[in-house]
Amino acid sequence: MTALFWELSSLGSAIEALLHTGFTDADIDAVGILSGSAFDVSGFLDSVGLPGVDATYYSNCLQDGALLLIIRTHHQKRNTAAEVVSRYGGVLPPSQ
Question: What is the reported pTM?
Answer without folding.
Answer: 0.87
